[in-house]
Amino acid sequence: MSRPSTSPASASGLPPAWRVPLLVLGFFGLLFGTGAGLARLGWSMPETAASAAALHGPLMICGFFGVVIALERAVAIGRYWAYLGPLLAGVGSVAAVFGAMALAPWFYLAGGLVLLAASLDVYRRQRALFTFTLALGAACWPIGVALWALGADVHQVVAWWLGFLILTIAGERLELSRFLPPSRFARTTFALVLAIIVAGMLGANRPWGATVFGAGLLALAAWLLKQDIARRTVRNKGLTRFIAVCLLSGYAWLAAGGAILTWAGGGFAPGAPAYGAAMHALALGFVFSMVFGHAAIIFPAVLRVAVPYHPSFYVPLALLHGSLLVRMAGEATGLLAWTQAGGLLNAVALAAFIASTASAVVRGARDRRTSPQRG
């Protein structure tokens, strides 16, 4: 996940202070989604979070990532109506947690449709492979939610939701590849990879679907590792290097998730050997690596606050990767204690990330206040 794209409209739209409540709604989804996940692992949680245990996936993907990505897109296009996307998705999370579960999918669906409209607006303004990929990713979210709202189980739609996150990130990284433009062959290869991933999503509930989807993710990871400028910027220092480390480690988790889906068997069925390990390799290892890496860019762009780099940014990243390794080891060996410990440490990593980012915002505000005195 990268900064919102700049456009002539981005100077207008909702003022930064009014965007804060929308971001709070996103973190509401993250908080209760994390609590629901811990409850599923057997940890004692407050009743509100425990009662939402079955909604761990929807709260994390629709309630957190959906809100944040829709907010980014709204800032990018600078249209007031686009802010309905994060608002509606956030209301969906509130409805899910506080007893109006029947309404939650429809709020998520409405938010996803607004994001899709905003993404199509971006594609209308700039016809390019990366804007097409962003629109394709945006379409995956409401497709998955619509199927869920009509009665499908979460595991039957999770490929669409993963596609939403993965294609959104791929489109944003493709956009930034203008600094190291891919060849025509590389662009054609990228389009073919998209086709394989979409084929896997369409066949997700068939025996071959997960294998095709996993193969597409493996190919995408190889493409990103080869084409992304992070291979060069990792040699730099400070924030630039940190972002590159996050990207490259995230691509490794993308490859791991793709490999598990391709070869472990069982597809997207709960209880299958591939299911838990692949979901967490992709949604935690890959997607959150992107979030950690770009927080210092996203927050200034969305909220107009400074997030100065500090070496402590590596602490949540190390916790994320280490805890995920513990969790996947537990899932692979059937050792519940390891899985539980890994899940708890996953939550600690997310809490450390929030604390680190908040500390950086405070530090940036303090530096901004004192900088005139230094001059």
Secondary structure topology:
Blueprint (H helix, E strand, L loop, with lengths): L15 H25 L6 H4 L5 H22 L6 H14 L6 H22 L3 H21 L4 H23 L7 H19 L6 H19 L2 H4 L4 H26 L9 H31 L10 H20 L2 H39 L1
Helix pairs in contact: 1-3, 1-4, 1-14, 3-4, 3-5, 3-7, 3-12, 4-5, 5-6, 6-7, 7-8, 7-12, 8-9, 9-11, 11-12, 12-13, 13-14
How would you characterize the overall build of this protein?
The protein is mainly α. The protein has a domain at 17-125. Helices cover 77% and strands 0% of the residues. It is built from 14 helices and no strands. The protein has helices spanning 16-40, 47-50, 56-77, 84-97, 104-125, 129-149, 154-176, 184-202, 209-227, 230-233, 238-263, 273-303, 314-333, 336-374. Helix 12 (273-303) packs antiparallel against helix 13. It is globular, with a radius of gyration of 20 Å. It starts with 15 loop residues before the first helix and ends with a helix. The model is unreliable at 2-11 (pLDDT under 50).
| Main sheet attributes: strand count, strand direction, barrel closure | none
What structural class is derived from the secondary structure elements?
mainly alpha
Q: Per the principal axes of the C-alpha atoms, what is the gross shape?
A: globular
SSE string: HHHHHHHHHHHHHH
- Tell me the number of strands: 0
Helix content: over 70%
Distance linking N and C termini: 35 Å
Q: How many separate helices? A: 14
Low-confidence stretches: 2-11
